[in-house]
Amino acid sequence: MKEKILVWSLTVVLLAAAWGVSKATLTDDAATAPFPTVAALDEPVAARNLAATVTDVHVATRVTDAEGWTAEGTWLVVDLTAATVVTQQSATLRLAELVIGDRTFTATDRGTTLVGQRLFTGVPRSGSIAFELPADALTGSGVLRLGVPSEASPNDVPLDGVIELTVRLDELPVEVDAALDENGWAR
């Protein structure tokens, strides 16, 4: 009888240990996951090869760029300045996404925005990025993620640093019309 109790006790201990190991084990993509750097509105922040300052976040039902392009819908517009820190080789603002719950939205490449624009070391560029969202997405919080490709893998999303800014979506007022900042050198 004591042997059965000992065997069952040992089985429970081993199962608990196996469960603990499975919870402590990193996911398969952990080796290539970026290191997030938390940002705040109007505060400069740097993550490896990207330095950025998000100056404004607003929602509009119509956006217009400096060249006359216009689109209607539900738009989240982010005004920012960005520069590289280490190298400008293959340095473009390639990662610009908004994560809301389990949904991820990529910044639009329509109109004139900073998405895909070449960045320079130590010389900030200013402009806007915009996300076209479904109307029901403007509740709760979202996380804005910005990054440039790493020098080791310029064709991939960043592997070493990403800037993340939490946006409280339901606190943002909805404007009728928003102009995307013209791309240019920051002042």
Automatic annotation (TrEMBL):
The keyword Signal applies. Keywords: Signal. Residues 1-24 form the signal peptide. It comes from the Bacteria. The keyword Signal applies. This is DUF4352 domain-containing protein.
